[in-house]
Amino acid sequence: TGAGATYLNVFHADIENFLSIKKLNADEDVRVKTLSLGVIIPDKMIELARKNEVTYTFYPHTGFLEYKKNFADIAVDMDYWYDILVKNP
Q: In terms of DSSP H, where are the helices of the chain?
């Protein structure tokens, strides 16, 4: 068996589920043992945390349907996209 790593943006709507798949008490069918998980934390998240503001997460497909952009393209410029996405759920 090998090992790997995967990362997910903190603004992705599945972030909580993503992080829970490593928990020791997770269902054996969904728990991963040889995969390292990482969270991408953009500057926008740090800014919101410093201001103690509510943060929102987004489903990638919703962004694609509305803006014809992949979440990866949105995520790399979250400083620009975050407020747009929040205003248009």
A: 15-20, 43-50, 60-67, 71-75, 78-87
